[in-house]
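pinned: reference chain
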Amino acid sequence: MHQSFLMHFLFQEQVNAYYLSDIPFIKITMDKSIIKKSIIEQQEEAVETLRKAVEQYQEEADIDEQEGQDPEDYSHQEEATDLWRRMETQLKIAESDLARIQSIPLEKVEKVKVGSLVETDYLNFFVGISSLPFQVEDRKVIGISTHAPIYLQLKGKKEGDRISIGKKEYKIRAVS
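pinned: its structure tokens
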């Protein structure tokens, strides 16, 4: 009798049981370092893609004006120069975002702030920079920036709180 009670107690201490819509589920906190690494990898790919685009448009913008070029070539040069400048701006933003996500500490927190992983009953959010949705441990994660409207709803929230996005309500299962 005492052994089964002890086993039950230890099991309860190791696994926090929660209820979502009357369906029990086991709270398994995601590994924040894996999520941060995934976002960094996404951002590194974006930076590399933008670097290649900048190089391409820079080459197209650098036609030799000494050679005899027709007016259409100059028109293409102006377009390429415009695209080159736009891509350079996007590259600087992407590099800044990469530096920002790399500098976010992975400390344990109880309330949502920069660097928090917010696990809800539907989606999971990493607060730092915006990212495309991706899968980690069979769960969908979205990176959000502190400028995103959803962050204003999440900021300062803790486990058990609820937020509304559009017509959908989310329960915060964990903040780490």
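why pinned: Helices lie at 2-14, 32-61, 71-103, 149-154. Residues 1-26 have pLDDT under 50 and may be disordered.
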